Amino acid sequence: MALDPRSGFCKANSTFYSKRKPIALPCHQAIDVTTFISSQSHHGHVALIDAATGREITFPQLWAAVESVATALSNLGVRKGDVILLLSPNSIYFPIVCLSVMSLGAIITTTNPLNTTAEIAKQIADSKPKLAFTVPELLSKLADSKLPIVLIGDNSITNSKIIANFESMMRTEARQNRVKDRVTQDDTATLLYSSGTTGASKGVVSSHRNLIGMVQTITGRFQLEQGAQAFICTVPMFHIYGLAAFATGLLASGSTVVVLSKFEMHEMLSAIEKYKATYLPLVPPILVALVNNADQITKRYDLSSLQSVLSGGAPLSKEVIEGFVQKFPSVAILQGYGLTESTGIGASTDSLDESRRYGTAGMLSPSMEAKIVNPETGEPLGVNRTGELWLKGPTIMKGYFSNAEATANTLDSEGWLRTGDLCYIDDDGFIFVVDRLKELIKYKGYQVPPAELEALLLTHPEIADAAVIPFPDEEVGQFPMAYVVRKTGSDISGSAVMNFVAKQVAPYKKIRRVAFVASVPKNPSGKILRKDLIKLATSKL
């Protein structure tokens, strides 16, 4: 195979190959991701720390709790293939739930605690979970569902739907002889919901092999010294970024995960200082805030233990990278690119030098292959040519849940994933994301599908037509902006439009700017010309 060692490109099959050292996957087919993680040798002691209370869970306690909860679930009749819903903010119990469920061959589906009752009901209707884990403050969001509930936290609450308390589950005597179905690497482990281009959220089906591949990529990437590292977890565990890194991946390396239930700048910085954290994963807006407030931060907090920040969600600009390097010279910036459909894996920069390829998403992750394909003709392209990025590798999803059409549109017969991102790969094998075919709005790392908000706006009796676009913002990345066509005779205001949407969606999906137009620009087939509206919106900046 004639491979260009510099770019990783093979002319014979128009494929780019990763220049990183390949990952090793277990030869044994009958292994689940929980068993794989628990069998990794390391010298780590503390697995999880609750930043708010200081409560610690050691590795022996973690694996004992996983066995106990798995036994309790088995006693409740949970079997291989059953779906279990987890609705919870970040907590030290989140990984225990996930690992217990997956050890049985059951499937974990997570949802955003900020989602509305209606949004959660949609996911329940689609995934049909057998039971749900949740916390007291989110109980009301499951009030209309018929789901039996395991409550994490306050055990004094009485509710006819509560069938068990998590704390007591963790004290269940683990039975080695419980009903244990044979779980293989091909079986489904997680069902995470990803916003589709059509506005309908789709369930991404990932296998145990996908997750094992993700674990191996993460532990290999950081070359973690045995048990000597502490990671701060502020990114949401329900999302692939948090689930991949914190609820599974890092526990295989013996690293300590310090969990914050939500992002709050002071709490995050205090936790770095208190627990001598070495790694800080975050999204670009938080990195920008660190740069902008660096002088006050370094006076108030001792961040000397910090070795690296890991940024995901969008490539960082030269100004942000250099601003950070100037303010925090001893901390390396590492970046990552991945999708829910690729189990969070795709490309990364693994050193400051690599991140200084300004605007790059990084080099292909280990064992990952890529193609750059002309979206019009399907022709595969070479180095420095822009087209849609296709990915193939051990972490690529099995498909979309109960959605053969969406799967066929995204995965081809050879296992190539169409990412929907327009990219090019340069002479040295670095990927650059030029634009999104998928048009998702990235608000603080959350994905907001414009089509979902457009459909909602069209239900308003005074709105004739609407289009939603990403509006750039230094603090949050992008927020949804609406272009609205009023019905004849209506004088509906921008604030009324915003309030109408705000009442029906999660806070991160709110429309934060409205402009009124005579008509929405569309192409001959009726597709909204979002690029024209983005130009119009940003021309006044």
Unreliable spans: none
Number of strands: 29
Q: Compute the average pLDDT.
A: 91
**Quaternary structure state of the chains depicted:** single chain
Q: Look at the helices and sheets and give the structural class.
A: alpha/beta
* Cα separation of the termini: 50 Å
CATH homologous superfamily title of the largest domain: ANL, N-terminal domain
Tell me the radius of gyration: 23 Å
Q: What would CATH call the architecture of the largest domain?
A: 3-Layer(aba) Sandwich
The percentage of residues in β strands lies in 25-35%
* Overall structural domain count: 2
State the helix count.
16
Largest sheet geometry: 12 strands, mixed
Q: What does the model show?
A:
By secondary structure, this protein is of the alpha/beta class. It folds into two domains: 9-425, Rossmann fold; 441-538, GMP Synthetase, Chain A, domain 3 (2-Layer Sandwich). Helix content is 27%, strand content 27%. It has 16 helices and 29 strands. The strands form six sheets. Strands 1, 2, 14, 15, 16, 17, 18, 19, 20, 21, 23 and 24 form a twelve-stranded mixed beta sheet that branches. Strands 6-5-7-8-9 form a five-stranded parallel beta sheet, sandwiched between helices. Strands 4-3-13-12 form a four-stranded mixed beta sheet. Helix 9 crosses helix 11 (318-327). The longest helix has 17 residues, at 59-75. The mean pLDDT is 91. One of its GO terms (molecular function) is (E)-caffeate-CoA ligase activity. Pathway: Phytoalexin biosynthesis; 3,4',5-trihydroxystilbene biosynthesis; 3,4',5-trihydroxystilbene from trans-4-coumarate: step 1/2.
